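S2.1 Query sequence (Histidine kinase)
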Amino acid sequence: MFPDGVSPEDQATYYDEIEQAGAKAVKAMRHLVGMLRKDTTDPLTSLREAVLKAVGEDRRVCLDLPENLDRVARTPQLATTVHRVILESLNNARHHASQATYISVALRIEQDAVRHVLVLEVVNDGVTGP
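Output structure tokens follow.
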């Protein structure tokens, strides 16, 4: 409900903005789901390979990978997910922090009470933009 005094035109404007924001969110979600569903031509089985392929030749990217990275229980799905998350993170950094001089991609393996946990961190020194 709108407070008293809000004109029908203003109400329509608010509803239009909500509809546009919802449509934009759905479009972004469809894009993400499409990326996650997309088959890769070469299945990735190694986490190290997944990271290296995602980073490519970008000289701004500093990698920090543990020696025992491939000892983590790995599946092609895990490698593909890590690959795609890094790709999307680097794409976001390039788009939203284009002034960044470096991007750090770090993976580490932590132990909780029951299992190993893979932690991925992507950080840059750029200022976020529009």
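DSSP finds three helices and three strands in the chain. Strands lie at 61-64, 103-111, 116-124.
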